[in-house]
Design brief:
- The chain has 17 helices and 14 strands.
- The chain is α/β, with parallel strands linked by helices.
- Strands 1-11-10-9-12-13 form a six-stranded parallel sheet, sandwiched between helices. The protein has a five-stranded parallel sheet with strand order 6-5-4-7-8, sandwiched between helices.
- Helix 10 packs across helix 12.
- It is globular and about 85 Å long.
């Protein structure tokens, strides 16, 4: 069901050579880019009419309007299962605790007497958030996008999620209920690349959508391609690829736990990656044996779990030691990394590349998906070596405010002129000379 990669016995290669040995799903955003281009440009030129046509073509729904009526949000919340509401409220509460603590404060540094630089943190003015609605419904993604934006102080927040035929062309009611719990009343029944284009260009009319400064949220390859298409026009969080879990485990790990956690990620998508890195052949054997009954007992077996576990993106990777395992998981740069080893906290502290790290047997990825308080919108495809997950910082911009007195400028002016002339930019130096009757100290 799941393949093996044996890296024992030889010295592990460095950097990209090691990364090339590890499993990864094929995810060609560049190829998808050409297919989303006409969809995006159709929204640019025809606005809401293009969104309605896209809903009919891709979702099988004929819409009269794209914006969700306020009453639909209220009705969805009133009809929500009380247990689901309680779980969403607890998820929101914990996420707010974590994200509120991330908010940065402005800081002023006195460089010299009379000369200061202040770094001021300012939220983006408007964001468009995307909640997928394909194989599953993700109210948790609504929380993970909305909470950090709100805690950052973003004043205008809109959300899009695909129209659902079984719900009369509205997004899934649990998505709408989550929006209502969070106080988000600007919601659109729009999906995929068309939704990203709606946020990027805006759509005119009384039910139209104002352009956003930034678009965040997970999605399929078409959403990722649309984000790439609009890079430069709007800010994005990331081009999210298929979800992935890596588990670094030794002989102390429970194979029942490890197998369950691999399956939990595999049920997302047939391209989802499930990778076990271990120095214990006995654990590898036990996990393989445990996968069979657990897969047989789960849902989404044929369309997601089995294709994901048996695909080229999933594997059991055998290494000589936990030390080598650390090198492998750092090279892999997993979206989610579980550490199930002896002294797991110490091992986790040495990891450099991961979207989020889950320490020990009682911090499974599922906890982070919903109720840990952490954010589950994380870098995929190895991007954790240079990118972070979604946070309050994602919605903030640092602006430097430079404030120098005449005396402070005069004291450093000759250095500025010298550097300007060294770069053959004499007008830069002249801007200093103009302030001091062309007489710069030291010149």
């Amino acid at each position: 069901m799941i393949s093996r990669i044996d890296l024992r016995g030889d010295t592990l290669p460095e950097g990209g050579d090691l990364r090339d040995l590890l499993p990864r799903a094929e995810f060609d955003v560049e190829a998808a880019l050409e297919k989303v281009r006409p969809l995006c440009e159709d929204v640019r030129h025809r606005g809401t009419a293009a969104l309605i046509d896209a809903a009919e073509k891709f979702d099988g729904v004929t819409l009269e309007r794209v914006r969700v009526p306020a009453k639909a949000l209220i009705d969805a919340l009133e009809a929500l299962d009380p247990a689901v509401r309680a779980a969403l409220e607890e998820s929101i509460r914990r996420a707010r605790l974590v994200h509120r603590a991330q908010r940065r404060s402005s800081h002023t540094t006195q460089v010299v007497p009379g000369g200061t630089v202040t770094e001021k943190w300012v939220p983006v003015g408007r964001v468009g958030l995307y909640a997928p609605g394909g194989r599953s419904v993700y109210p948790s993604s609504v929380i993970m996008n909305v909470v950090p934006a709100q805690e950052a102080g973003v004043e205008s927040i809109a959300l899009a999620s695909p129209a659902q035929k079984e719900f009369g062309g509205l997004p899934h009611p649990t998505i709408l209920a989550a929006c209502a719990l969070l106080g988000i009343d600007e919601v659109y029944a729009a999906g995929g690349a068309s939704a990203v284009a709606m946020f990027a260009y805006g759509t005119p009319g009384p039910d139209g959508c104002a352009p956003a400064n930034m678009v965040t949220g997970p999605g399929n390859i078409w959403v990722a391609a649309a984000k790439r298409y609009f890079t430069g026009r709007i800010g994005i969080d990331a081009e999210a690829g298929p979800t992935e879990i890596a588990v670094l485990a030794d002989a102390t790990a429970d194979p029942v736990h490890v197998a369950a956690d691999l399956i939990s990620q595999a049920e997302h998508d047939p391209l989802a990656a499930a990778v076990l890195v271990t120095d214990s052949a006995e654990l590898a054997d036990a996990v393989e044996k445990e996968l069979e009954p657990q897969v047989a007992a789960t849902k989404h077996i044929e369309d997601r779990v089995v294709p994901a576990l048996s695909g080229r993106q999933s594997a059991i990777v055998l290494v000589d030691s936990v030390e080598d395992g650390l090198r492998v998981v750092d090279a892999y740069g997993a979206e989610h990394l579980e550490i199930q080893t002896a002294d797991a906290a110490a091992v986790a502290a040495r990891v450099r590349n991961a979207g989020a790290i889950f320490v020990g047997p009682y911090a499974p990825v599922s906890l982070g998906d919903y109720c840990a308080g952490s954010n589950h919108v994380l870098p995929t495809g190895g991007c954790a070596c240079h990118s972070s997950g979604l946070s309050v910082q994602s919605f903030l911009r640092g602006i430097h405010i430079v404030d120098y007195s005449e005396e402070a400028l005069a004291e450093v002016a000759h250095h500025v002129v010298t550097l300007a002339e060294a770069e053959d930019l004499p007008a830069h130096g002249a801007a200093l000379k103009a302030r001091f009757a062309w007489k710069v100290p030291g010149k």
